[in-house]
Amino acid sequence: MNYIGSKYKLLPFIRETIIQIVGKENLTQSIFYDAFAGTGIVGRAFKSKVKKVIASDTEFYAYVLNRNYIQNHQPLPLEHLYYLNTLQGKEGFITQNYTLQGSSRNYFSIANGKKIDAIRTEIENLKSKISEDEYYFLLCSLLESADKVANTASVYGAYLKHLKKTAQKPLQIEPANFEINDHEHEVYHGEVETLIHQISGDILYLDPPYNTRQYGSNYHLLNTIACYDIFEPQGKTGLRPNYYRSAFCSKEQAPAMLEKIIAQAQFRYIFLSYNNEGIIPLQKIQQIMQKFGKYEVFTQSYTRFMADKPTERNFKAKATLEYLHFLEKQA
Asked: 97 lies in a domain?
């Protein structure tokens, strides 16, 4: 899934830096908390390398993804997934509000909107008959498969006027396969500033939003498919009412929130991913982290995610510098 702030390209840098600092032997006995998990890329990279991964996110679609990719760790049956692919489409909330059949919003083809409605309804019907693990596996599989046929430039802040080629393809659910291992893992839906009081471990990895763009608006339709609740879509793009707004998207609130989380964290090793385009200045982050123990910073240049293809005008802007801040917190 294309995702703003995804650490997919930076995984080798993040993984190798953390292993170098913590040590391979210590890592295998560590509890690793990915506190702004998103699509779960970083937590998944450490799932087989640590004793336990804990992941959390405020967005429900992200909870679904991590509930499957992180917490699921034993094989699951696939017959229900195959069955869902046989369903005929039927008109429902997505068709009525996010396709041209029932609105002016062209997020999905009409056929794919109906298929999403049919499959999402049936997943809910199956909920009482299947395990919780399988429920989130099926829901995660639907989210990722629907995202592949969405008529957007990767985010849901807007839809395209005409259906692009990938959006014209019929929806086919592909299994959201997760890593199998013998360790149990935990996933939470909630704010880090609340969860940090009840979660403790060895390694805390922080990857908060960098700028003023809210994930609740950029990925609102994934939340709507995941929740499948009834509401009055807001505005031209059909936003969910009262979507979550992160303090990390505010220049005024972000520094204080970062310091609050670090001060309350019950972890020895704290890592913070943040780039040179972030709204918290480098010097401010250094000032905050140095209050709590031994501090270092590591850097890596990379090509950041862009929803639009680079042009001569914006080509230079696509390269950025990633900082991996490290704090060994004093007791």
From this structure: yes
Residue 63 lies in a domain: yes
pLDDT tens, residue by residue, 244-291: 999 999 999 999 999 999 999 999 999 999 999 999 999 999 999 999
> Cα–Cα distance between 159 and 238 in angstroms, integer?
10
Q: Round to whole Å and give the CA distance between 207 and 193.
A: 13
Number of structural domains the chain divides into? 1
d(CA 178, CA 140): 11
Structural domain containing residue 187: 11-329
pTM score, whole prediction: 0.94
Sequence-distant (6+) residues with CB within 8 A of 79 are: none
In a domain, 38, yes or no: yes
Q: Are 97 and 103 in contact (CB under 8 A)?
A: yes
Q: Are 66 and 37 in contact (CB under 8 A)?
A: yes
Domain-embedded: residue 2: no
**What does the buried/exposed string (b/e) look like for 100-138 if buried means 16 or more CB atoms within 10 Å of the residue's CB?**
bbbbebbbbbbbbbbbbbbbbebbeeeeeeeeebbbbbb
Output the domain CATH number for residue 216: 3.40.50.150
